[in-house]
Write a structure and sequence with these properties.
The complex is a heterodimer of chains A (about 300) and B (about 240). Chain A has helices at about 45-50, 75-80, 95-105, 115-120, 135-145, 165-180, 190-200, 215-220, 260-270, 280-290, 300-310; strands spanning about 5-15, 20-25, 25-30, 35-40, 60-65, 65-70, 80-85, 150-155, 185-190, 200-205, 210-215, 225-230, 240-245, 250-255, 270-280. Chain A has about 300 residues and is an alpha/beta fold. In chain A, the strands form three sheets. In chain A, strands 7-8-9-4-10-11 form a six-stranded mixed beta sheet, with helices on both faces. In chain A, strands 1, 2, 3, 5 and 6 form a five-stranded antiparallel beta sheet that branches. Chain A is elongated, with a radius of gyration of 21 Å. In chain A, about 45% of the residues are buried. Chain B has about 240 residues and is mainly alpha-helical. Chain B has one domain. In chain B, about 85% of the residues lie in helices and about 0% in strands. Chain B has helices at about 1-40, 40-70, 70-80, 80-85, 90-125, 135, 140-160, 160-185, 195-205, 215-235. Classes of the chains: A alpha/beta (about 300), B mainly alpha (about 240).
């Protein structure tokens, strides 16, 4: 577990009867960029709030940088920079005053980083936060997080409101200034194209459950969509079959690896293979969260286990 | 730096009440001194000035307590900045006690300056030098107003709203002001912050009266119990 920046085991967060996080097993390795992906309301922010000690889990365990979230919250917060989904800071304070306010809490604070990122993000440092546009507010939040020199950055929807130029600059900074120094970044987002550009690992969450956790390179090189036609085809998921969806006589299988071998098995069952195609992150995401005609139980519980065996 | 932020949230109210309370104390003293000196009664002079402090200044100080308690912590809820604050590396009790302590210091300064200015004026205008005993009058006033301040502070944390915190605090304060009147009507001695503060000021003017030490201890305990309760509320709060 030492090589993990974030580790959760059967984490549950409940709001009334709603399970926002449902037995989540998350594994974020140190020193990489982890894309925490999911639809709106999938449970991303709830998970992050549990990790930062803002809410308490109903069940399960969570460790951040080797510290227990319930018992060692201050130790976690000393080493973690966080940009919230809402991007709310003190409206009356200017960005410069917010810098002065925040720097007092962090011994590793980088004074050099402030003018550097203020310049590269083009932040108006002398205007009150409340009078800034959404994009500039986001930039101020990012500036405060980056200047902390934290071991772990947890960024919840960090590009919301940013223009394409700023998004590009943000991605450059994350890759060149943060990840290259061996620091860990967890980015919660549903901007799949952005994540595909910078993430090393992705975790896909829906209805509070982790549907997939894998290296992005593995997804690109190994994941395949197999379309087969035929009767009595297998309908269940296994460690290698991530999802199965039926559409008339056709079944679509998202296969983690050994696509050719699986296709051969289907042929042996009398199926006609119409297509074997590589998958991008977007296709994987849609396949996993798609709800039309699901012929699986939606339980991808075997997948994280398969992934975690690689740790 | 959180101290600086809390100070920034409340400094305009602090300055307002500092000026108003000091002005009221000084103004009434200047009016009373010639009247009482003409009567030739030093005891009256002491007693009247103590009443000015006990009634007029303490009502204003209680209003200051209500006004200073809510804005800083209430703003965290209103502007939804609590998530930002609670992800800074400090225990939650740090935020509660720091914010509370800033207001307590402001109240202390307001009351101390008002009392010193009032009795300073008394000494200057009457030509007599008064003893340290007068300064002790600040203690019941300070502890009493801090108790009201702490109650409003807790109510703000409980309701997660500065407006509601002040409203409920004001309601309780009105009841507290009515209590002595009810006590007078029924000829019974009932506890109230106002009567406690007035008793403290009168003790300063009349050495024969007993200092309300017991009440002082009770109100001091109450004043500390409320932020402690606020701490427990915030430590269990989900953001």
């Amino acid at each position: 577990m030492k090589d993990m920046a974030i580790w959760t085991e059967k984490l549950v967060k409940q709001y009334g009867k709603l399970k926002a996080v449902d037995e989540l097993d998350l594994h974020v390795l140190r020193g990489g960029i982890y894309g925490f992906l999911g639809r709106n309301g999938a449970g991303k922010t709830s998970t992050i709030k549990v990790l930062l000690g803002l809410t308490r889990p109903a069940a399960g365990e969570a460790m951040v940088l080797g510290f227990h979230t319930g018992r060692q919250q201050v130790a976690i917060l000393e080493r973690t920079a966080y940009v919230s989904e809402t991007k709310t800071l003190y409206g009356a304070l200017t960005a410069q005053e917010l810098v002065r306010f925040t720097r007092s809490f962090y011994p590793n604070w980088s004074d050099d980083a402030v003018p550097k990122y203020a310049r590269s993000f083009e932040i108006p440092m002398d205007r009150p936060f409340a009078k800034l546009s959404l994009g500039n507010r986001t930039k101020v939040c990012l500036l405060l997080a980056l200047a902390q020199n934290a071991d772990l950055l947890i960024l919840d929807e960090p590009t919301s409101g940013l223009d394409p130029v700023a998004v590009d600059e943000f991605q450059r900074v994350i890759v060149e200034d943060v990840a290259s120094e061996g620091r860990t970044v967890l980015i919660s987002s549903h901007q799949l194209a952005d994540m595909e550009r910078i993430a090393d690992w992705v975790g896909l969450i829906d209805h509070g459950r982790l549907l997939l956790e894998a290296r992005l390179d593995d997804i690109k090189s190994q994941f395949r969509l197999i379309t087969a036609a035929g009767a009595a085809l297998p309908q269940g998921t296994t460690a290698d079959i991530i999802s199965v969806s039926a559409n008339g006589d056709f079944c679509k299988y998202v296969v983690r690896q050994n696509a050719e071998a699986f296709a051969a098995e289907l042929r042996a069952l009398g199926a006609m293979i119409t297509d074997i195609s590589p998958l991008g992150l977007r296709e994987i995401f849609l396949e996993l969260v798609r709800k039309e005609e699901p012929c699986t139980s939606g339980n991808a519980g075997g997948i994280p286990a398969a992934v975690s065996s690689s740790f | 730096m959180y101290i600086w932020k809390c100070w920034g949230d409340t400094r305009s109210r602090f300055i307002f009440f500092l000026i108003v309370i000091t002005a009221v104390g000084v103004f009434f003293t200047i009016i009373l001194v010639p009247i009482d000196v003409q009567k030739g009664s030093v005891v009256h002079l002491w007693s009247d000035v103590a009443d000015v402090l006990g009634v007029f200044c303490s009502i204003l100080a209680l209003l200051a307590a209500l006004s200073l308690a809510a804005p800083s912590i209430g703003q965290e809820f209103k502007e939804q900045t609590l998530g930002f604050l609670l992800t800074r590396p400090r225990r939650r009790r740090y935020w509660i006690w720091t914010c509370w302590a800033v207001g307590v210091c402001e109240l202390g300064v307001v009351i101390f300056i008002a009392v010193v200015a009032t009795f300073g004026t008394l000494s200057f205008v009457s030509g007599r030098v008064y003893t340290w005993r007068l300064l002790v009058a600040t203690l019941p006033m300070f502890i009493g107003t801090v108790a009201v301040y702490s109650l409003t502070y807790l109510l703000t944390v409980l309701t997660r709203s500065s407006e509601q915190g002040i409203s409920y605090g004001m309601g309780i304060l009105v009841i507290d002001l009515v209590i002595p009147l009810v006590g007078l009507y029924w000829h019974v001695h009932l506890f109230s912050v106002m009567s406690f503060i007035i008793a403290g000021c009168r003790w300063a003017a009349s050495p024969k009266l007993a200092f309300p030490l017991g009440q002082l201890a009770i109100y001091a305990a109450v004043a500390l119990a409320f932020p402690l309760a606020a701490q427990l509320v915030l430590e269990r709060a989900e953001v």
